[in-house]
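Deliverable D5.2: sample structural annotation.
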Amino acid sequence: MAVIQIPDELVDKGLRDFFRGWKWLNWSSNEIIFDFSQVNYISPWAVTLFATYALKLKSEGKIIKLWIDDSRKAGQFLIQAGIYNILEVEFNLATPPPTNKLVPLTIISSSIVIPQFTKKVMNLLQIEDEEIEGAVEYSFVELLRNVVQHSHSPIGGVAMAEYFPSTGLVELVVADCGIGILRSLSASYPEIDEDRLALKFAVMPHVSGTFSQSAYGSMMNNAGLGLFFVKEIATRSSGGFFLGSNTMLMNLWGNANGTQGQRLVASNDIGWPGTFAFLQLRKKNIVDFAGLLAHCRDIAAKARKDPREFSLDFMDDVPEIEHFISIVVQDFNENVEQAAVIRDTIVMPALINKDLVIWDFTGIRFATQSFIHACMYKILRDIPYARSYMSFLNCSNATKEAIKAVAYAESGKVE
C-alpha cells in the first residue's frame, strides 16, 4: 500500500511551484491511497490533475482509494467535483448539496462528449451577448478538442470547470496522460526536440500536430489555430492561460498596456506525464467576438506570408528553468564592435550547442536597428534554427520593432 499525501493548500497562485516540485511517480504498490484528509483548499486545476493521475493508475490495474474529510470545505468540494464518481470508488460520506457554479469532472474520450460538456459550462455563465458567448464557447471547444485529437491517451482526458460569481472568473481545466505536446508535434516539426520549444510552437498561429507547416485552412476548422485562439482570448480579457506538458509549464497573461506576459517554468523532475491546460477567463472583460476573430485572422494571414516573425520570442520574465545563457545588453549597449565579439564568442557557440540564449534588454529604452543588426543578423543568417533558441527579455516597443526589422531583412522580406 502506498499513500499519496496531498498538500493542504493548492491555490491558483501555487500552480507554478507545485509543477516545479511535485513528483508523479510510477508506483509498484498494488493499492494507492490519495489522502485529501488534511486539505484546506484545492483549486480546480489540482482536482483535475489528481483525478486524471488516479484514473491513469486505475487503468494500469491499481486499486485506488480516497481519504477525504467531508467536514472540511475542501472535502465537500471534492465530492461535488465528482472525484468518487469518475474513479468509480464507493464512499459513505455525506453528499453536500449540488452547486450550479460547477461542472464536475468529466472524461473527454471522444468528440461527442465535447458539446455536452461545453453546454454545461455555458449554462453556468449565462452570457447574454451572443458574440461574447461564441468566443467563450469556441475557446472551450478548442481546448477539449486538442485532447481528443492529439493526446493519444487510452483513457482520454479529464475536464472540469468552475464559475466564481463574485469575481466573474471562470476556470476550465483539461488534462490527459497521453504522449505530450513534444511527441504530438515532432512528426510535422522534426526540428522541435525539447518541451520548451514544443510549448512555444503550440501556441503560435498555424501550428498543429494534425497539419503540416504548409497546411492552411478555415479558421473554424482546426488548422493549427486552436491553442493560439485560446491564449489570445484569455490574455486579451485580463485572464490567464497555463499550458503544461512533461517537463515544462508556460504561463501566459495579459498586461495592462495590451501586451502579453509570459513565464516558463521547468519541473525539477519528469513533470506532468502528458498535457494539461488551465484557462482563466473574466466574463466582463472578454472583448467582442467579431473583433477578436478579425485580429486572429489578421495574424494568421501574416503567419502564412512570413512565419518567421512569429517565432521571435519576446518575454517579460526570466524563465524558471535550470540552464540558459543570459546576455545583458545594457553592458555593451550601442557598441557594435563589442556586440560582434559577444555574438561570435558567446552567443553563436551556445546556439550551435542548442542552449537557450536570452538577450536581456532591461533598462534600454531604444535599441537602434544597426546595433541589433550587429548583435544578431549573422546569427539569423548562419544558424537556421536560431530563432527557436533565442528569447528577448524586457524589450520596449521600439526595440521589438528593431529586432523584427532585422529578422525581416535576414529573410529577404521588404515591407
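Annotation notes: Residues 207-223 have pLDDT under 50 and may be disordered. The chain has two domains: 2-305, 313-411.
The annotation will be released with the project's public dataset once the embargo ends.
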